[in-house]
Fold each of these.
Amino acid sequence: MAIKVTMPRLSDTMTEGTVATWLKKVGDKVSEGDILAEIETDKATMEFESFNEGTLLHIGIQAGETAPVDSLLAIIGKEGEDISALLAGGDAPAAEAPKADAPAAEAKTETAAPAKAATELPKGVVVVTMPRLSDTMTEGTVASWLKKVGDAVAEGDILAEIETDKATMEFESFNAGTLLYIGIQEGNTAPVDSLLAIIGPAGTDISGIAENYTAGGAATASAPAAEEKTAPAAEKAPEAVAETSNGGRILASPLAKKIASDKGIQLSQVKGSGENGRIVKSDIENFTPSAQAQTSAAAPAAKQEASAPAAPKVFVPAGEVYTEEIKNSQMRKIIAKRLSESLFTAPHYNLVIEVSMDEAMQARAAINSVPDTKVSFNDMVIKACALALKKHPKINSTWKEDAIIINHHVNIGVAVAVEDGLVVPVLKFTDAMSLSQIGGSVRDLAGRAKNKKLGPQEMEGSTFTVSNLGMFGITEFNSIINQPNSAILSVGAIVEKPVVKNGQIVVGNTMMLSLACDHRTIDGATGAQFLQTLKQYIESPVTMLA
């Protein structure tokens, strides 16, 4: 049986649509999901897909034509099927109706007349149906009502929030009056075109309208309102489809055409600011007729100077989606594996402390004044960590299922960024090294790490790790523990800022330290005590010589 396809409502504010192009022609086979046509709405040009399959038997709106929502767009059925009854306005081909059913059909026709009279809408009353808010929407759910029965409704007011198959959208009223009836309660779902609400003058008797509508009176109940809205649109349609002097169609949104028609504006005089010169709503609203156009009009007695304000050029995104696939190196795979294991097996927590760096800066300047000596702040932090670990050996530990291993030797790993990822060369027996020895070893290991000349044995055996991003301006961060270590120290940048010393606000230099601990081996108090000792060493470097 042939099926009517009507102009869909592809946006919440769409009242009419323009067929930009047909992708099927009469006689073509149509499958469910095939794109029938491209339709211009008041917001965009969208592809309209078929929800039925068969043969395209009739096209009701030609390419370039504009028609109201629910106008006959096409008919799909069996090849060679008689569609004369559908074109005449019926619901089924006349040839398919058996002769034996003729008396019954007559009886239905006779009873339809009183039903129509009974359900004729009172003056000013409008039936609002569940809108189609997306091209694939077949039913909607009322998420919430923003108006209740008895509330005054103005044109443009938000009536309800409706959940579609794609999103929750606000549904605005196209009519003014009083909300007289709500047909779908909050949380309920109903098909597109179900009775959603009734709006009309306050106090209007609407008894019987909802019952007749749900019983099959949809066409009858909404006929007066539909006739009112479609008649003016049908009259104005020829004006809305403007053409250029060379026969090409002017690109304009249906809403822009409607406003232009209402204001009597010729689209050929309007410069479009949309994509490919498309005329949009703002172009019509900002349009001021030029002096030349007014002279050529029939009535004006004198020329008037008028200038159309330049509409802002709408940005049209253009470019190419570009991606690049980089195969994971063996180093990257190992980093991912070990850090994932660490984060998801060790219960991490972080302790943060702020350290004054004024004395450390003075001490470093004094040390570096010695010929052939170069010490960094990171070297000083590493030395302080080594000494603090000797005082707090629980930080220098390793978790095993049946025991906790306390390491009384100190091997500090130093995180080094390389081209392919991250490596952690190890300073063996760091507590026995001087500042200058630490500095020289770190520079040597980091240099060979970046040149891929580190041996595996030089990256094994760490008991604690230091990671420093201060040289990049990072003031504070948290690291993932480098297992089998139980802790890692994150070192931030030195920042000059106001500080309080001896009750006075002075300019000072501070640095943030963050200690990530494995809670299986290190309790919070133990980690805090380690940071206090570390702070004392850094703030007073001379104590590292004791």
Amino acid sequence: MKYIITILTMIAFAALMALIFLYAQIRFDAYKIIDYAPKLTTQIYDRNGELIANLFDDENRLYVDYKNIPPRLIEALVATEDTSFFEHSGINLEAIFRALVKDIHAMKMVEGASTITQQLIKNTVLSRQKTLTRKVNEAILAYTVESSLTKEQILERYFNHVYFGHGYYGVKTAAHGYFNKTLDALTLKEIAILVGLPKAPSSYDPTKHMDLSLSRANQVVNRMYALGWISEAEYTKSTLEHPMVYDETLTRNRAPYVVDEVIKSLSTEYDDIKKGGYQIYLTIDLKLQHLAHESLKVGYNGMVSRMGKDANASDLNGAMVVMENGTGNILALVGGIDYAKSSFNRATQSKRQPGSSFKPFLYQKALDWGYSPLSEIPDISRTYVNSETDEEWKPKNYENDFEGLITLKEALVHSRNLATINLLSLLGLDSVYKELKKDGFKNLSMDLSLALGSFGISPLEYSGFYSMFANYGVRTEPMLVKKIINRQGVEKVYETKTQTMTSPKQSYLMIDMMKEVVKRGTGRNAQVPGIEIAGKTGTTNSSVDAWFCGFSPDIEVITWFGNDNNSPLKKGETGGRSAAPAFKYFMTKYVELHPETTREFKIPEGVESRKIDGTTEFFTDVSPFPKTNNVKQLKEDSGLMF
């Protein structure tokens, strides 16, 4: 007797534990539906609200609240899948009995009787396999869910969770993907196609099986008409309709270099960047982004054609950054000629020597320290010896000549290396180096080669420094992300950072000098009719890097070309020949797109002018007009022989 009692006790205990486990599992599954928090696709938009890309891991899902689901869409679903949805408590007993009779007759499970609630459960927490155990769990869960959620909440979860084929999760995603439409813009036939998809997403995918998809959609329309939920006119029109269906990539990535940079810059702040359902608004203008890429291709093709049989098209590449002067907004960012061949972002990741394009920063120091554009500096050759290695360095001008004495303006206009090195020596290497470090420059050379830009910097970082010229002395940090809205609708707005580097009047002296670079100097190929352009070319030793850094009164464009393996470009491929034409192409098209753009630089208060031989020269109280004995004084101060 004791043995029997023991056995019964063990059986009862096992049954109790099984019930407890089943209850715990059902409770856990129910909470996954009740406290619904799916993975949501993050969407990236440009400054005009144009979609740039969808970001997601394994489920591409755009969420829609119940209030924004069209009533006709709800009617189509209920008519097709569960006509008594609003009357039952999760289980349709009449439908179950009808299906059971058919299953017994066929001696196997041939017909389901799932309500919308059960379908939601099946798609969310249970398998699709037709077993008795799953059906029992499904029924219990259905009652649990119905007692915790309203019918509207259940429908909202259904429409957002169900798979609609082609990689689209949720009805909003499917509407955008298949039809390029918002839910409220869908026709009845398009609604019918969507409602028919969850039953067999692959079989009814309209991008692959349009005939089957239309046939299934007509069944949905027939059912709605049979119930009297649509008129005969609506029925006729819908059955004859053949909607336009799109077959696009899931990500719809229209600016891959930009998207990569967004992910990289935001991942530390948002670890759920690809599943958190964020709306990210960028400063990028898609039209200008495409124009920047087109402009790079123009420059690239020109270089390849000039190189002829010596062209190494696989190594040759480029980058372009376009920024709004006053705001720091990045309007375009292109990190290479062809993203499909190389995703390496040369605009943000590549550290290249800026060469002579760095000279304006030294000349600005000279102006701020009392020199004027007409101050004369020695353009002579000298040999420098490294005290530690005894190695000699004898820099030269690109033209292999020297002028003796030359004004600051002419030295910059014609990019005279010797004059710039001598200027740095006159200003004091230590003093200039410390000031440039204070300004934010990194990895600078602590020797006179600093005058020729002998350090590495990315085009994006460089654009921030260059903004001090375009923005009248105020350096503006480049900004890519304008605002982020999370799934709860909370906004985070980003503001750009600025740093005053010099005064507007001193900055204008440099703007005028850089305008001359484009008018008659090394940057002549960057001229754009009808608008003032200022800028500076940059070419490093052996033409390894070719730059043009230019700006109009409204925008700045940094352009770079070079080989990925750091090998020299063909002789003669300077910044003025290679990069300036790409800049010109961009600016010419930009002015066509934006005829309202400012055409002339404004002269700030405190800038004076004087006519010298028919040419207007500018000066300030900090950079006064030179005295007549300037040359003699310079010789005495410099200690250099002429």
Amino acid sequence: MLVLLLLHLAAALAAPLLVRRWGPRACYPLALAPAAAFGWALTRTPTVRDGGAVVETYRWIDQLDIDVALRLTALSWLMTLLVSGVGALVLVYCGRYFAPDSAGLVRFVAVLVAFAGAMLGLVLADDLLLLYVFWELTTVFSYLLIGHSTERRASRWAAAQALTVTTLGGLAMLVGFLILGEHAGSYRWSEIAGAPLPGGAGLVVAVLLILTGALAKSAIVPFNAWLPVAMAAPTPVSAYLHAAAMVKAGIYLIGMLAPVLADVGPWRPVVLTLGLVTMIAGGWAALRQCDLKLLLAYGTVSQLGLLAVVLGAGSPDAALAGVVMLLAHALFKAALFLVVGIIDHEVGTRDLRELSGLGRRAPVLAVVAALAAASMAGVPPLLGFVGKEAVFAALAERPVVLAGLAVGTILTVAYSIRFLWGAFATRPDVELTEPDPVPVPMLLPPALLAVGGLVAGPAVAGLEGPLRPYAELFGAPHEHLALWHGLTPALGLSAVALAGGYLLHAVRGPLAPALVRLRSPVGGNQGYEWIIHRFDRFAIEVTGATQRGSLPQYLGAVLLALVLVPGATLLSARPWRERIALWDSPLQLVVTLVVAVAALLAVRARRRLTAMLLVGVTGYGTAMLFVLYGAPDLALTQFLVETATIAVFVLVLRRLPERFSARPLRRSRWARRLVGVGVGVVLAGLALVAAGSRTAAPISLAFPDLAVAEGYGRNVVNVTLVDIRAWDTMGELAVLVVAATGVASLIFERSRTGPRPRRGEPSRAPRRDTGPVWLSGGPTLQERRRSIVFEVVTRLIFHTMVLFSLFLLFSGHNAPGGGFAGGLVASLALTLRYLAGGRYELAEGAPVGAGTVLGAGLAISVGGGVVSLLTTGDVLESAKVNLPLPWLGEPYLVTSLFFDVGVYLVVVGLVLDILRSLGAEVDRHIEAAGRSERGLVVEREGESG
């Protein structure tokens, strides 16, 4: 089973290449993936018939005890056949449905194949959390398929509506799964079903939440509005997702859970009531439609209500009838949607008011449609008739439910006749339709599906074998599947339904006013739009009341909450120790006083530069504390980070006023100072409590030995970063890349591939005879910004700093340093060169794009993890490689060095991106503004002259 899922994944990944090469014809080989799943399921028929199960389990997430648990039983066997069989036929259909130059064809085919794989995983999943993963994958893929025509607003709206409704239902279902799994002690459904469930309110809540997800996915009232709107999707999508696959997911979940949960209090009232309402409302709405596709869409809603009732009833006979109807519905409804696609493709319209005489001009297509529609209406000897009769017989002891099903079936017959009459009948007042010849690859899939319904009806006894084990989960069924049971009440109801449906169609003229009047005052789509509008309005009101555009207010609210909640808890509980050592050395007290004084002066500073330098003093003081506590690695990193931060501040301050604003007023300033003091006291208290509350030995005690034994390095800090907790570092690298992208995109819109001069700019620094040239970019600066001493110093120490950064990189595994510290030193060297020579000097000092450096760093770090996987079997685990250099002693290489190189490059790329965004780009802006001002002055002087 896992192989089949991987096959679908490989097909989805290969689809773009195949479609670009072969166009729509690539759908033919891609159909082999679902066809393989169909063939595999057929070979497992004997196991399913004997009541057995095919099980595969693979370890997935050890920490969460989650496995890739796959299980094939009778119900999932049937769904696998439907998902894979209809999926293969729809792909064959797509090979001729789409033109070679269709927009978005590459994406469409790849997503369709991926959806088939996700749906296959959903019906095979035994673990509830794994089922949820595939459930949401089908939601995402359906969103992309429904919104295929991105240029049409209707498609985008339909996709968004389907995504919103099904995702919210899925989230509710996830909470239900979590409650159910915790109640049962396992998330494996086969284990939950095999053990007694604890009762209580928790189980009731879990059932209601799970049903919410299932009903939303299958468009059951009140979630039925999204399915008709989703008809904006291409017809193959409607045939697959909205007839045979996606909308069946909720029905499948109801059928899977019913053997265990059907007796839980709210199950039957919810499922039976909403199912009946959906069946009748959908059937009545279908009679009002003139678009053939919308007619089938509302008919699908109606049939999904029927399936929910039958599979949710929780009796063996109803379960057996339900799986037969599940199969019949997939066959006739997918065939009918494909027929509508052919009509639309060959005629150019789906409006039944514009079609006439199509039955005579496309007789084969008319026969296919007639077979499928007859099965939908329950005409013998088709499979739909067998399923409807089995449903009537199974629910004979529930007269209210039976009456509702009879009404819904009459409506089903009526809209089935309306479909055939509207699509193929000849009307004298309408011009005859002249269709193009139907290609065989388009006609073959619906024909196979329709003929399948015809053949399966008389041969239904052969289907009972593999389907009966599912019904036996509820008990022993009393009924058997057969085309003829004699003169029974169920047969009488079927005859009444056929006669009543024909009568409804016959009086369609006089019935038209009633169809218009008898409808909900607020349609489902209108209700959805009203709810979305109210949510938008509410969001605007909340945003307007809370988001006032004041950063101090936002920060103050957060910090005030920190003071009030944890601070009040500290005061009430008083969990700190009685005796606290304030310092270990008098030097620590001296440094702490320096940091405190600098912080107080920074608060009172009026100049921005002064405040920034004082804040820098607090950072350097913190680094000194690291030194006094014997942490040279942390101290080195803190020194470098603080220096780089000051340089960035300097770049930003160029575009800000020299002094702070006169505001806030005195009273406001004191309030902010009080909040600041409160935050400091609370954080100090939290730090003391956290440090004194440990009951177990810290895991870091084992780090020194692990660093040598497992990481092959004596620098515990660096080995921790690149080996012991390398996954954390990998996440931080990703954050740095995102931060660099954010800085570049928020400041300016520009290319990040490299320092490309704009139109009219020279590619290199212009040369001017302005005295000695120590840096090529120096003469481009204004005289007041240029410093020969600065240039000389930069020229002398730049290469030394770069070499020192490499030394820190390569020595950091056993001595203070590492990729992060080395990258900071190299970044400071580039910063120094930019400050001394300007943007041209930066371009010559780093003639490579920041994005390239960032990408290379991240790729090397990930590659280091791959190397570790190949050499040690674990991702990001160090391996020791001895080097054959005996004259150097016993040198060796540790694979985590590659990871550290990636860290080095990411840090350099981040700072380089900041220098080009906040430095070079701001320089261009200043120069452009200066040229504009000079031009304006010259213009004014010319006018005055």
